Amino acid sequence: MVEHLIDVERVRGSSPLSRTSNIKVIIMDLKSTYNRIAEDWAKDHKDDIWWKKGTDKFASLLMPGASLLDVGCGAGIKSKYFAEKGFKVTGVDFSEGMLKIAKREVPSAHFFVKGILEIETLENEFDAIYVQAVLLHVPKERVEFVLEKLKNKLTPNGILYLGVKEVRPNAPDEEVVREDDYGYDYERFFSYFTKAEMEDYVNKIGLELVWTNISSSGKTNWIEMIVRNT
Fold this sequence. Notes:
Elements: H1 2-6, E1 10-11, H2 16-20, E2 23-24, H3 30-45, H4 52-60, E3 67-71, H5 77-84, E4 88-93, H6 96-105, E5 110-113, E6 126-132, H7 143-152, E7 154-165, E8 174-179, E9 186-191, H8 195-204, E10 207-217, E11 220-229
Parallel strand pairs: 3-4, 3-6, 4-5, 6-7
Antiparallel strand pairs: 1-2, 7-11, 8-9, 10-11
């Protein structure tokens, strides 16, 4: 699970000062956080549209009826999109609260309580894997390791979609963020990336870059990337 990746890591910022100052990440339980905010999060994000261009492109590369794994599926918003297009959808998330909503919204899909490092326990490989807003909770020094796990669950020539937040100029590339937008306090760990970093990650593990894009949502830029297992 993602929380096990971050509880012993250190935050490294992007500025020269923060690089030289290792700051211990607060021991965090992202699973509990997402269980707590599940219903509020689902309502807050149900009308998001920034992801549609990249996700449409991803879906267009798949054969009808392709098997698809939605990693960190949350409340099943994208799982529903894929199921309605006729794909065979499996969703995984470590939050039981999120999956309760996903199962309610997408009864035709199969959902399992699993973190990103537990997908290797799934029996099958998949024609496509969709990973949006998940790597942003993984410390950057562990991202390549996680991508290898994802690659291992792809069929030959399988397609992988990645969506991460772009790092802002003069801002840290890893941080713990405290929020209260739902009327109560909660904290989450975030990693932020550059397009060049993401391209380097996928090149290192032998994935072929198919398509990339930067989409905006409010003050956030999202790096979207589609790669093929060669």
